[in-house]
Write a structure and sequence with these properties.
Blueprint (H helix, E strand, L loop, with lengths): L6 H5 L5 E7 L5 E2 L10 E5 L15 E7 L9 E8 L2 E18 L5 E7 L2 H6 L3 H5 L5 E2 H12 L14 E2 L22 H10 L4 E4 L5 E4 L28 E2 L4 E6 L9 E5 L7 E4 L4 E5 L9 H15 L7 E7 L9 E5 L4 E5 L2 E5 L5 E6 L22 E7 L4 E7 L4 E7 L3 E8 L8 E10 L5 E8 L12 E2 L3 E3 L5 E3 L18 E2 L5 E2 L37 H9 L5 E3 L6 E4 L5 E3 L41 H9 L3 E5 L2 E8 L2 H10 L10 E5 L8 H10 L5 E5 L3 H36 L1
Parallel strand pairs: 12-18, 14-16
Antiparallel strand pairs: 1-2, 1-5, 3-4, 3-20, 4-7, 5-6, 6-7, 8-9, 10-11, 13-17, 14-15, 17-21, 18-19, 20-21, 22-23, 23-24, 24-25, 25-26, 26-27, 28-29, 29-30, 31-32, 33-34, 34-35, 36-37, 38-39
Length: about 750
């Protein structure tokens, strides 16, 4: 319940109620005098399904018609609150919404406005770029915190049942260089993510009246208990308190089902319809979770633990479904709240799952709570909401003849089969015919009889090659050993056999950075020649044959290497990423995508005698629009907060500038996106953006465990400052002209 102190006042229809709808970032307000009577409606929903579905996340909506407004507000954010009996210090919040529709009436005197809360953006946002940038594994709490941080939405602080669960990458998040070329199959909706989070924790998602995402749980309904008449006058029995809000005396019409939606007694979690998962609890009212991508990679034991954490929470939901109910409107009642109706026949206890609150001064509530007596097997499957899941499915088949296990990876287009009979064990690996790089391999262990009727055992392997992969490979024999650290010991000699490519033997060693080198190899350099037949010993230390300065053996050879024509390039990992030193000494990048420094690893500073040049040729630009014509940027300029500060890593000197988060808030208040203002960039990083795991760990520690970082491009503010100065200059010029006219008028009057 919200602001319970106002509850009783709302039950009284004579209480004065003054609603104020504020357009965020402006001075525009819509009050009772501007609202068309009977048009205001607040639609809230926790679960609109005909059967209770845990994990449901539905957007709330407001609709109203207003007159004398200041123009179209579509796309703007509105905040709604209501003052009761003139108590402006304790207003009733209705929520924060974004206007989706603002349509004038036929006579153009009023505007019909529809707005949705932030849940609408959550469930309709494509979050594939965020998901692709995550560093797995992580806990579910870290996962959901990162998700809402990416969306810029605050959560109500709470602990969820499976917050400590490990989350791995289980969804295909295909990325292309051209964002416009991303196919529909590669999209990952915010709805897929948020419903999966809520479902696996036995709750519902809702944007509360304060504009925060709230995890809503259906708590067990506690009924009021009174002693039976035949127990009177026992003096040690007292009524117990109910946790339901009584609607007695407040409802006008009421229709309910003649059954109770029973509490869940058994929970099953499966990665797919065909897979065996985990079942906990006792048979009765069974609930099934199928296709939740957060647990698609979990073992049976892991699923069982998750289910054990979840069942006690889900088991609390038992209620009588409401078909329809009309009652006095009371915004203090919130979604998921237990409510009670004392009818002439019985007491009906249920939850507030849906409502439409209408009116301002005289409010009416239309509430409902759908449900079934028991749950069907597939009520809650969210599998269909995921278009491109990295689905790894397994199937186990058992009969009197064999035991067969099949495992399929749809992303890799591969499948494996393991079959066991009384006489053989076989394993197969196959890749789809149309997949890139066909794969077909098998291994068979068989016990049988040969052509001479002799008992034999066989191990058969087929394919062009056999690859052994693992963190540690150990081989131990009398003449050859490979230990777990990668050290090889060979007894007697190491022999090489020339291939069909020729008689030349190529030996390449790589250092930690992947650069070719020879190290700790005893070899007569005069007996080894280069591709031109010249002994390496004759010029091994010259710059012409040293790959890098690091491989040169003397300072002189290193200098020669630096001066060699092939050393005019600083090359990255990719062949197309390099910086070239031109003939006139300029550093020339291979493309405009090469940065000097990165967001998490910037340079400390720099010097330039000629200043930093930026490409600004008109022929490199398009879609021009004068900044003075967009009044959003004037408001944005006013909201900027210049600050003085010290850097954490260097607190000796004071700096002046902006705080990126403050700039972001100002942009939000003015409805300016990051695509419209390049001065702010909010990036999400992974360990791939750093040179080492140690740098990645240090970054996370310094950043409070989050993997995001804000940056500002201050040169983008120059044009904004210029535009605002020009605007002020125009105003000053106008004032000077008006002052000059006034002075002439005064002078003329004095002469008269």
């Amino acid at each position: 319940m919200i602001n319970s102190s106002l509850k009783e006042k709302y039950w009284d229809s004579s209480t004065d109620k003054q609603m104020v709808i504020s357009v965020v970032g402006t001075n525009q307000k819509i009050d009772n005098s501007m609202l068309e009577i009977g048009t205001f409606a607040l639609e809230e929903s926790l679960c609109s399904e005909s059967e209770l579905k845990f994990g449901a996340c539905e957007a709330n909506c407001v609709k109203f018609t207003a007159r004398n407004t200041a123009g179209n507000i579509i796309g703007k954010t509105i905040s709604i609150e209501e003052t009761i009996d003139g108590d402006s210090e304790n207003p009733m919040p209705y929520g924060v919404f974004k206007v989706a529709s603002d349509v004038p009436t036929a006579d153009r005197t009023k505007r019909q406005i529809t707005a949705y809360d932030a849940m609408y953006d959550i469930i309709n946002t494509d979050v594939k770029s965020w998901y692709a940038g995550l560093s797995f594994p992580m806990t579910l709490k870290q996962f959901r915190n990162s998700f809402f941080a990416y969306l810029g939405i605050a959560q109500v602080e709470t602990s969820l049942a499976n917050d400590s669960m490990t989350v791995n990458k289980t969804i295909v998040a295909t990325q292309t260089d051209d964002s416009s070329a991303v196919t529909e199959e590669s999209a990952i909706s915010g709805k897929t993510v948020v419903t999966a989070i809520c479902e696996i924790n036995g709750c519902f998602g809702n944007m509360n009246r304060d504009g925060k995402f709230e995890y809503v749980f259906l708590k067990a309904i506690t009924s009021a208990l009174y002693p039976a008449e035949d127990l009177f006058p026992s003096d040690n029995l007292f009524p117990s308190d109910a946790n339901t809000e009584s609607m007695t005396g407040h409802y006008i019409t009421f229709d309910y089902e003649d059954f109770q939606s029973k509490a869940i007694t058994q929970l099953e979690i499966k990665t797919s319809e065909d897979n065996a998962g985990a079942i906990v609890g006792t048979a009765g009212n069974n609930y099934s979770i199928t296709g939740n991508f957060l647990v698609s990679d979990k073992t049976g034991a892991e699923l069982e633990q998750i289910a054990n954490n979840l069942l006690p929470i889900m088991a609390k939901a038992a209620y009588t479904p409401i078909k329809s109910c009309t009652c006095v409107g009371n915004p203090c009642l919130t979604l998921g709240e237990p409510i009670r109706f004392n009818t002439t026949r019985e007491i009906v206890e249920t939850y507030l799952l849906q409502r439409t609150l209408t009116g301002v001064q005289s409010k009416r509530d239309s509430i409902s709570a759908q449900g079934t007596q028991t749950h069907s097997a597939k009520v809650n499957s969210i599998r269909d909401t995921i278009e491109s899941v990295e689905r790894r499915t397994g199937k186990l088949e058992r009969n009197a003849d064999h035991l067969q296990s099949t495992y399929e990876d749809l992303e890799e287009q591969t499948n494996t089969k393991f079959e066991q009979t009384a006489k053989s064990i076989s394993a197969e690996v196959n890749r789809a015919q149309k997949a890139e790089g066909q794969l077909d391999a098998s291994l068979e262990l068989k016990l049988g009889r040969d052509e001479n009727d002799q008992v034999v055992s066989m191990i058969n392997a087929s394919a062009d090659q056999i690859t052994l992969s693992g963190n540690r490979l150990i081989v131990n024999s009398n003449n050859f050993q490979l230990d777990g650290d990668g050290r090889v010991s060979i007894v007697d000699s190491l022999n090489f056999i020339a291939t069909s490519q020729g008689d030349d033997l190529v030996i390449i060693g790589l250092d930690a950075r992947g650069r070719p080198m020879l190290q700790n190899i005893r070899i007569d350099l005069n007996s080894v020649t280069d591709q031109d037949g010249v002994a390496i010993g004759d010029h091994a230390s010259t710059a012409d044959h040293a790959t890098t300065a690091d491989s040169a053996t003397t300072a002189e050879s290193a200098r020669q290497c630096i001066m060699a024509s092939t050393a005019h390039y600083l090359q990255g990992i990719g062949l197309s990423d390099y910086v070239r030193i031109s003939d006139n000494g300029n550093l020339i990048p291979s493309s405009s995508s090469v940065y000097c420094g990165t967001n998490p690893n910037p340079f400390a500073g720099g010097y330039s005698s000629g200043g930093w040049k930026t490409t600004s040729d008109r022929r490199k630009k398009k879609d021009f629009r004068k900044l003075l014509e967009d009044d959003r940027f004037e408001r944005f300029f006013e909201l900027l907060q210049p600050m003085e500060y010290r850097l954490i890593e260097n607190d000796k000197k004071m700096h002046i500038g902006f705080v990126a988060q403050d700039v972001e808030q100002a942009m939000t208040d003015c409805d300016i996106s990051e695509n419209e203002f390049y001065g702010l960039e909010h990036a999400v990083f992974s360990e791939k953006d750093f040179e080492s795991n140690e740098e990645w760990k240090n970054f996370l520690e310094q950043n409070g465990g989050t993997n995001d970082m804000y940056t500002l491009c201050y040169q983008e503010f120059i044009a904004l400052n210029t535009a605002m100065i020009q605007k002020l200059q125009n105003r000053c010029n106008d004032f000077e002209r008006r002052l000059s006219v006034l002075e002439r008028s005064v002078s003329h009057a004095e002469n008269i």
